[in-house]
Design brief:
The complex is a heterodimer of chains A (420) and B (60). Helix content of chain A is 71%, strand content 2%. Chain A is an all-alpha fold. In chain A, the strands form two sheets. Chain A has a two-stranded antiparallel sheet. Chain A has a two-stranded antiparallel ribbon with strand order 2-3. Chain A starts with a helix and ends with a helix. Chain B is mainly alpha-helical and 60 residues long. Classes of the chains: A mainly alpha (420), B mainly alpha (60). Chains A and B meet through helix 2, helix 3, helix 9, helix 13 and helix 14 of A and helix 1 of B.
C-alpha cells in the first residue's frame, strides 16, 4: 500500500516525508537498510530485557506488539482513513481490509473462546456511556486523524502531529477511566458475548455473514458512485469532445497493491496470538490510561480514593511496573515496530505543515479521544476490532455509533481547514 | 548534509522520554517477583489475575 503516503490528494499536501528531501548522492539504500537493522536489534534487545525482567509471557507480547507496529506502519493501515475515504470518496478498500483482519482474528479466536473458558473476550457492557463515547470517539478520531492504533503507530514513526496527540490521549484515557463509574451509573446492561449465547458455529456464521453483507453493500454503493461519475463523464465528453477510457475515469483506491491485505491478515493473526498469549484480546487504551495514572500518581496525587483507580485491581497495576501490564507492553512494542517499518520504507519522521488551529484542534481531539474511548470500553482496536472478533455485541454497537460520529468528524475537518 | 538526528529527532525524543519514564517507573514500582510469573501462554492457564483491558467494566 505504498500509495497511501504518496497520495497527492491526501497526505502529501500537509506532510512531506523527510526521506524525499535527501540531497543528491546522499541516500538511500545504505541509510535505509542500516537504520532498520539497528532498530531490529533494539527490538530483539527489548524482547530480551522484557523477558528477563518480567517473564516469557510479557516477552512474547512484546514481539506481538512489534508485529502490530510493523503491519500498521508498513501498510499505513488506518481505521480512521479507511472510514474517511469511504465517507468522502466511497473507496471501500480500507474498510474491506479491516473486515478481513477482523474475520481472520474471529476465525481463530471464536473456537478458542468456545473451548477454553479461561480466555476472555472483549466483552464491554451495553451502556449509555458506550453510545456517547463511541460517537464522540468517531468524531474526534477524524479531527485528530488517528484512532487508538493510528495515533500510536504514527507517533512511533515520528509523525509530529501524533506525537503531540499522544500525551493528550494518555491523559484523556486517565480522566475517562477515573470518571467511568459515574458514567456507568447512568445506565448499563451486562455484556453480551455471542459465543456464550449462540456457540462458536452460529457466532461465526452470523458475524462473518454480517461482515460479508456489509462488504457487499460497500461495493454496491461504490459501484453506484462510479456509474454516476461515468455518466457525468459521458456528458462532459459529448460537450467537450474529449473522451476518457473507463479506467481513467474510475477513481483510484487510496490503497494500491497487496500490502494492505497482507497487513490485514497479519493483524488478524497477531490479534489471535494476543488472545492465546495474554488470555485477553488486543487492546490499546487501557495501557495509555494506566500511563497517565502513573504519571499523576508520581506527581503526588493520591488515586486510592478514586472510584476506578482506587479499586484493588487497579491499585495493584499502579504499584507494579508498566512492563507487567499486557496492554502497555504491546503498546510500546507497537511504537517500535512502526518505526522499524517506516524507516525501512524511508517514511519515518515526516515533515508537517499545518495551521496553528489544526494543531490545537488535534491536541484537544486527542484528549477527547482518550476520554471517550474509556467511556466506550475501547477504541477501534479494543472495541471494534477485538470486540467483533471475539463475539462481543458491544463491538457492533461501537462500530455503528463511531461511524456516525466519523461522518460528523469529517465535516468538522472541513470547518477546521484540515479536510485535505 | 543534514545529520540523521536532525531529520529524525521526533522519534529520538519519543524514545528518550519513553525510556526515561520506563526506568523511573521500574525503580519506583513494587519489585517484580520473577519466579512467580505466569506460564508463557494464557491458553490453558488464564490471564494474569490483575490483567486490565479497555473493555472490562470496573469490578471490585
Amino acid at each position: 500500500m505504498g500509495g497511501a503516503l504518496n497520495d497527492p490528494g491526501a497526505i502529501a499536501s500537509a506532510i512531506t516525508p523527510a526521506a524525499t528531501h535527501r540531497l543528491p548522492g546522499q541516500a538511500g539504500v545504505g541509510a535505509r537498510t542500516r537504520r532498520p537493522f539497528a532498530l531490529m536489534v533494539a527490538a530483539l534487545a527489548g524482547f530480551l530485557v522484557v523477558t528477563w525482567l518480567v517473564g516469557w509471557r510479557q516477552g512474547l507480547l512484546w514481539c506481538i506488539g512489534v508485529g502490530y507496529g510493523v503491519a500498521l506502519s508498513a501498510a499505513a493501515f488506518g481505521f480512521t482513513t479507511g472510514w474517511r475515504v469511504w465517507i468522502t470518496q466511497r473507496d471501500p478498500k480500507g474498510l474491506w481490509a479491516q473486515f478481513v483482519g477482523i474475520a481472520v482474528a474471529m476465525l481463530i479466536s471464536v473456537p478458542f473462546l468456545a473451548s477454553h473458558p479461561e480466555l476472555e473476550g472483549a466483552d464491554g457492557p451495553l451502556s449509555i456511556s458506550l453510545l456517547v463515547g463511541a460517537f464522540v470517539f468517531g468524531a474526534a478520531m477524524q479531527v485528530a486523524d488517528g484512532c487508538g492504533s493510528g495515533t500510536l503507530y504514527k507517533a512511533g514513526l515520528g509523525h509530529p502531529v501524533s506525537l503531540a496527540v499522544l500525551p493528550a490521549f494518555v491523559f484523556g484515557s486517565f480522566f475517562g477511566a477515573a470518571q467511568l463509574p459515574a458514567w456507568l451509573a447512568l445506565g448499563a446492561l451486562p455484556p453480551v458475548n455471542l459465543v456464550q449465547v449462540l456457540g462458536a458455529p452460529w457466532t461465526l456464521a452470523l458475524q462473518l455473514g454480517a461482515l460479508a453483507l456489509l462488504a457487499a453493500l460497500l461495493w454496491r454503493f461504490s459501484a453506484m458512485r462510479a456509474d454516476r461519475a461515468g455518466r457525468a463523464g459521458d456528458v462532459a465528453a459529448v460537450m467537450t469532445g474529449v473522451h476518457q477510457h473507463d479506467a481513467a475515469r474510475r477513481p483510484q483506491s487510496r490503497w494500491q497493491g497487496k500490502t494492505v491485505w497482507i497487513a490485514a491478515i497479519a493483524l488478524g493473526l497477531l490479534a489471535a496470538a494476543n488472545l492465546v498469549v495474554a488470555g485477553q484480546p488486543w487492546g490499546i487504551v487501557y495501557g495509555l490510561g494506566l500511563w497517565g495514572a502513573k504519571i499523576v500518581q508520581a506527581l503526588g496525587f493520591d488515586l486510592s480514593r478514586n472510584a476506578f483507580w482506587g479499586l484493588p485491581v487497579q491499585q495493584a497495576q499502579l504499584h507494579a511496573s508498566v512492563l507487567a501490564d499486557n496492554t502497555s507492553v504491546t503498546d510500546i512494542g507497537l511504537l517500535l515496530g512502526a518505526l522499524i517499518a517506516a524507516s525501512w520504507k524511508g517514511r519515518a519522521c515526516p515533515r508537517v505543515r499545518l495551521p496553528w488551529r489544526a494543531w490545537v484542534a488535534s491536541v484537544l481531539a486527542g484528549l477527547v479521544l482518550g476520554y471517550s474511548s474509556r467511556l466506550a470500553f475501547g477504541c477501534n482496536v479494543g472495541a471494534y476490532f477485538s470486540g467483533i472478533a471475539t463475539g462481543s455485541l458491544h463491538g457492533w454497537i461501537w462500530f455503528a455509533c463511531a461511524f456516525l460520529g466519523s461522518m460528523l468528524g469529517v465535516r468538522l475537518r472541513g470547518r477546521l481547514g484540515i479536510a485535505g | 548534509m543534514p545529520l540523521p538526528f536532525q531529520k529524525s529527532w521526533p522519534a529520538w525524543l519519543l524514545w528518550a522520554v519513553l525510556l526515561a519514564l520506563l526506568v523511573l517507573d521500574w525503580r519506583s514500582s513494587t519489585p517484580h517477583r520473577r519466579f512467580a510469573e505466569p506460564p508463557p501462554l494464557a491458553l490453558g492457564n488464564g490471564p494474569a489475575a490483575d490483567a486490565g483491558h479497555c473493555s472490562l467494566a470496573p469490578q471490585k
